[in-house]
Structures are given as structure tokens and as C-alpha cells.
Write a structure and sequence with these properties.
Bound molecules: 4'-deoxy-4'-aminopyridoxal-5'-phosphate
Number of strands: 24
Radius of gyration: 27 Å
Distance between the termini: 43 Å
Strand order of the largest sheet: 11-17-16-15-14-12-13
């Protein structure tokens, strides 16, 4: 088998090509751009467009795209060259009409540690999905021809070049999407993101669900935990556990140090000026309620106005509604456009000297919209309003700098950023926290108590009545250090690419409507599929090991804005892979054709 370099000029010819040329042209290009068959015969066509992966190329030539060719084998790279993993026994003959068929057993490739095990799979993309989960990268594929297997090898270098890393994507250095990405990737400066290495840090990703590898696409609901966080919790309970702040013994000192060190880590992570600006709470919900009950009750009165956006999670609506009802204040809502982005012009109209607070999300949990936070905050401050920024969905995806944002409060939950449940953060500007009365009373938050009078601690202790969630605060510190080590910018870049890839593939599915198409988006792909209930889609995806949320995502107003009661919501994290997206798309297509229900 010979291989040929793909040069920049080859690439430019690829990228300048119309997206769907006719089959003859496809064959011609395939002959040019893919390597010779072992027999020296011309290969069949492949889609010559720039693909992120073999899987995408295969999707392009698969029956659903109207090309009656079904791939029949694939190969994986190995030190000593390509090893073919054929599909030797099948229960059904591949048909030119494009009926999906089953691969039953995969040959074991010599020298490979792990190869896909025998299981029935529809089509090659399923097969590759399996291979991916075993950490092997398909590098070539074959097509059946008159009952014989013909191999079409992918070029080994250039655009589709293999890096020595363990990931298996052909465009792993891409910085844009699709064809643009391919061009840019040739000159890309940043190192590839090693998703397979990251995945090894998360033991739960090895779980099987219904006999299939778990594909965790429910990250907006909660994220999985790396071993380092699990170990930190265990270490705390083995060696440090004690109540904090109140004893002279060794373990009290250890646990207090660990807890206060976690507070420092949080402060650094969000660029707070001091750890005293960081209050440990149960999560975003509790943080918002704390501000509503403490600051809100003291500062909001009859006729005052509170502004939220249409994108808000119920956690950032209900506490303000309750406050407005109690105080006779008015809740105002910033509308969004058809893409799910906040309408700044409408927001400007809502602001006035009665506006006491603007509370909004940095990233929408239902649509993934990244809101123009900086501008919203600045405009609010101009009318003297305070601003609470809900970072539950932004914290794990984009860089947060509370000083640059200039928000008065910032809230997030540990479990959304690879940390434990039951721990979260309320950041507040020092002068704002200092002026807030305590919310709950009890131990830890007092300096002195008599029956006549209590003197409170300064912030943050003033807001941490009782025994807090010490171990999980420490676990959150470990999670943030882990994220910091990988680099939030690297994470954001990789997730952005993955989101663009998933958006493109999902939007090719006929009858699929993506909800939330703002230009600035992260991580969330909400959709509905014509003729199918979201609950049924969620259940069917689960049968294939894919975990997504289907429902209203605790954000009913924004879904109703789009005329819906629920959507299916895959949501991404940096441990998700292109192959998982391919598998999601394959399964959604199968569900659509009634092959899974
Ligand atoms: N705000 C947003 C935007 C969220 O996505 C969530 C959780 N889904 C919350 C607030 C509430 O977070 P928690 O349930 O962790 O308190």
C-alpha cells in the first residue's frame, strides 16, 4: 500500500471545492487524494470534503447521505504500521441499497492492546465509536465491492496526519471549524488537546450502560469527578477530618487549613482580590437565596425594580419573585432574540432609577448562550443598580475574572466544575458583603453572644452559620486546581471546536431543530426532533449508553419563549470526544428511522 503526502495545495483544492460534488467528481477526487488500494485498483469514491475524522467521512458516504456505499472495514494505526480490523462475519450482507447491517465480530489486530470486542453494530461509524472508546484511532476504511473488501487508506500525513499522541482525530489541532479549521490547523500554534489523557482521569467514563460505553453528555446538569477529587475527599476523611476553627487539636488545625486553603484556591480561580470575598454555600441556588434574603430584604422596597433575563434558570427567578411579592417590588425581564441572545437595546429601556438589582446568567443552561455580561453589568452600574452574575454554567467553560467583570456578586456550584455536590460559592465585593446583614444565625458566624446582643463575625464567616460542608469545600479546591492545570483557555478552545462540530452534524439531520443558535455559545445543544417526544429520545439514547437531559431544564420561561415545553439537551465537557458526538448523531438518526425506540 502506498501513501501520499497531502500538501497545502491539495488542501486548498479540497477546501475550495463545492460541498457536494457529483459522484463522478467524487470518484476522481478520491482517486487523487486517497492512497492506492493494495491491488493497485482505483478506490471507490469518498467524500473529498475536509472531515474531522474518518467517522465524519463515513457519515458523508453512508446511506443516509444518499450514497449507496457501505464501509466494511477499518484499520487502526500501530507502531509497526496499519493493522486492519476487518469485520469477518456478518449476519447480513451489505447491500448496495444502503440498509445498515451488523458487524458481528472484529478481528483482533496483532499487537494492539485493546480492540473492539464482538458486538453488533450498525455501520462503520458505530464500529469506530467502539474503537474510539478503546482508545484506538481508525486510520483507514474499506468499502465492499462485488462481495470483496477494498481498502481505502487515508493519507498518513498532512491534513490527516497522525500525531504520536493518544487522541484519534485528524484535525486535533484545528482552531476553527470545518474547512476553515483544516486550513488554519496547518499553521496552528497551540499544542493539541489530549482528550484521551484527560479521560483517563475520570474513572466513571469507563462505565458501561446497557452494554455500551457510557457517553456522558449531561454535563450542564452535573459533571463527572476526576480521580484527584475523589482521592482528595478520601484523604480528608482518612487524615484530616475535624470540625474547623474551634479546637486546639491537630486535626482541627489540619481541616481548618484545608478548608481555608480551598477558599484561597477559589479566590485565585475567579480572580477575587481576597479569600474574604469568598463564602462557602451549598450551591448556586443557596447563594442566590442568600443574597435575596440578606441584601434583598434590607435594600428592596415597594415600587423598586429587579431585572432578570428571559434565559434564567428557575434558581435565578423564584428567589427574586418571592422577594418582590414580599416587598411589593416589580420583576422585569430582558427579552431575547430568535437565536436566544439577550436584546441589549430592550435591556437599556428597562433600566431606570428604580432598578435596584440586575440578576442574570453568564451562560444559559437551556440554550448555551453566553451573554454580554460585561456590558450588562456596566449599564446596570450606571443607574446605581447592583449586579448578581449566575456563573453556574460559565465557570467550567470560560475564564471568569470577577474583578474585570465588576459584578457585585458571582455564584457557582462545585458540582458543575468537576467538584463535589453540596458545595458552592458566593463571591461578593468586600464593601457589599460587609454591608449585608447575616442570613442564618448560629455557630461560627458570631464573635460574641449574650442574651441581650450578638456581635457578628465579618464576612465571610458571618454568612457561614453552623458546620459547613468542609470535606466538599476541600474537594472543590482540588477540582479547581485540576482545571487550572489543564488550563481554562485550552478547555474553552477544545469545547468550542467540539460544539461547532456537533452543531454542524446535528443540524444536518432533517427534522431536527436546534434551539439556541446565538453566535456566542458554549457547551449546550438543545434540540427537538419532528414527530418524536423529547422523553422518548432521551430513553432511546440511554439504551445506547448516551446520557442527555430531556425536559425543561429548570428554565421553563426560555423554552416557552421558543414555543416548547421541553428539549433534548446534550451538553459537553472537555472529556467528551468527537467520536462521542459521531455516536450521538448516529443514534439520533437511528431513532429517527425507528431503529431504536
Ligand atoms: N443557575 C444555572 C444557570 C444553572 O444551570 C443551575 C443548575 N442547573 C443553577 C443556577 C442552580 O444550581 P444548583 O442546583 O447547583 O444550586
Amino acid at each position: 500500500m502506498t501513501t501520499r503526502m497531502t500538501t497545502r495545495s491539495d488542501l486548498e483544492r479540497f477546501t475550495n471545492a463545492p460541498p457536494l460534488p457529483d459522484i463522478e467528481q467524487l470518484s476522481r477526487w478520491a482517486n487523487e487524494f486517497f492512497t492506492e488500494l493494495p491491488s493497485g485498483e482505483s478506490p471507490h469514491f469518498v467524500q473529498p470534503a475536509v472531515s474531522h475524522s474518518v467517522t465524519e467521512a463515513i457519515t458523508d458516504i453512508s446511506p443516509s447521505s444518499g450514497h449507496a456505499k457501505v464501509p466494511l472495514s477499518f484499520s487502526v494505526p500501530h507502531e509497526s504500521g496499519l493493522h486492519e480490523l476487518a469485520a469477518p462475519s456478518r449476519t447480513e450482507e451489505p447491500t448496495a441499497s444502503g440498509t445498515p447491517y451488523y458487524f458481528q465480530h472484529y478481528a483482533n489486530a496483532e499487537g494492539l492492546d485493546a480492540v473492539p470486542q464482538a458486538s453488533a453494530t450498525h455501520g462503520l461509524s458505530g464500529l469506530i465509536g467502539d474503537a474510539s472508546s478503546y482508545g484506538v484511532r481508525p486510520e483507514s476504511f474499506g468499502l465492499p465491492d462485488n462481495g470483496e473488501l477494498k481498502t481505502l487508506a487515508m493519507p498518513k500525513t498532512g491534513l490527516f496526519g497522525i500525531s504520536s499522541g493518544s487522541s484519534f482525530y485528524f484535525l486535533e489541532e484545528a482552531v476553527g471549524t470545518g474547512r476553515d479549521a483544516a486550513v488554519q490547523s496547518l499553521g496552528s500554534a497551540h499544542p493539541p488537546f489530549d482528550v484521551q489523557a484527560v479521560r483517563r482521569d475520570f474513572p466513571i467514563l469507563n462505565e458501561k450502560v446497557n452494554g455500551r460505553p457510557l457517553v456522558w453528555l449531561d454535563n450542564a446538569a452535573t459533571t463527572q469527578k476526576p480521580q484527584i477529587v475523589i482521592d482528595r475527599l478520601s484523604q480528608f476523611y482518612r487524615h484530616e477530618n475535624s470540625n474547623i476553627h474551634r479546637a486546639a487539636h491537630e486535626l482541627a488545625a489540619r481541616s481548618t487549613d484545608a478548608y481555608e486553603n480551598a477558599r484561597q484556591i477559589v479566590a485565585r480561580f475567579i480572580n477575587a482580590n481576597s479569600a474574604d470575598e469568598v463564602v462557602f454555600v451549598r450551591g448556586s441556588t443557596e447563594a442566590i437565596n442568600l443574597v435575596a434574603q440578606s441584601w434583598g430584604r434590607a435594600n428592596v422596597g415597594p415600587g423598586d425594580e429587579i431585572i432578570v433575563s428571559w434565559l434564567e434558570h428557575h434558581a435565578n427567578i423564584v428567589p427574586w419573585q418571592q422577594l418582590c411579592a414580599e416587598k411589593g417590588a416589580v420583576l422585569r425581564v430582558i427579552p431575547v432574540d430568535e437565536t436566544g441572545q439577550i436584546l441589549l437595546s430592550e435591556y437599556r429601556k428597562l433600566l431606570n432609577d428604580k432598578t435596584k438589582l440586575v440578576a442574570f446568567t453568564q451562560v444559559s443552561n437551556a440554550l448555551g448562550t453566553i451573554t454580554p455580561a460585561q456590558e450588562i453589568i456596566e449599564l446596570a452600574h450606571r443607574v446605581g443598580a447592583k449586579v448578581l452574575l449566575d456563573g453556574a454554567q460559565s465557570i467550567s467553560h470560560i475564564k471568569v475574572d470577577v474583578q474585570a467583570l465588576d459584578c457585585d456578586w458571582f455564584v457557582f456550584s462545585g458540582h458543575k466544575i468537576y467538584g463535589p455536590t453540596g458545595i458552592g460559592i458566593l463571591y461578593g465585593k468586600p464593601e457589599v458583603l460587609e454591608a449585608m446583614p447575616p442570613w442564618q444565625g448560629g455557630g461560627n458566624m458570631i464573635e460574641d453572644v449574650t442574651f441581650e446582643k450578638t456581635v457578628y463575625q465579618p464576612a465571610p464567616a458571618r454568612f457561614e452559620a453552623g458546620t459547613g460542608n468542609i470535606a466538599d469545600a476541600v474537594g472543590l479546591g482540588a477540582a479547581l486546581e485540576y482545571v487550572q492545570k489543564i488550563g481554562i483557555d485550552n478547555i474553552a478552545r477544545y469545547e468550542h471546536e467540539l460544539l461547532a462540530y456537533a452543531t454542524e452534524l446535528l443540524s444536518r439531520i432533517p427534522g431536527l431543530r436546534l434551539i439556541g443558535t446565538a453566535r456566542e455559545k458554549t457547551s449546550v445543544l438543545s434540540f427537538v426532533l419532528k414527530g418524536l417526544s423529547t422523553a422518548d429520545i432521551g430513553t432511546a439514547l440511554n439504551k445506547e449508553g448516551i446520557a442527555v437531559r430531556s425536559g425543561h431544564h429548570c428554565a421553563q420561561p426560555i423554552l416557552r419563549r421558543f414555543g416548547l415545553e421541553s428539549t433534548v439537551r446534550p451538553s459537553l465537557a472537555f472529556y467528551n470526544t468527537y467520536a462521542e458526538i459521531d455516536w450521538l448523531v448516529t443514534v439520533v438518526r437511528k431513532i429517527q428511522c425507528g431503529k431504536i425506540s
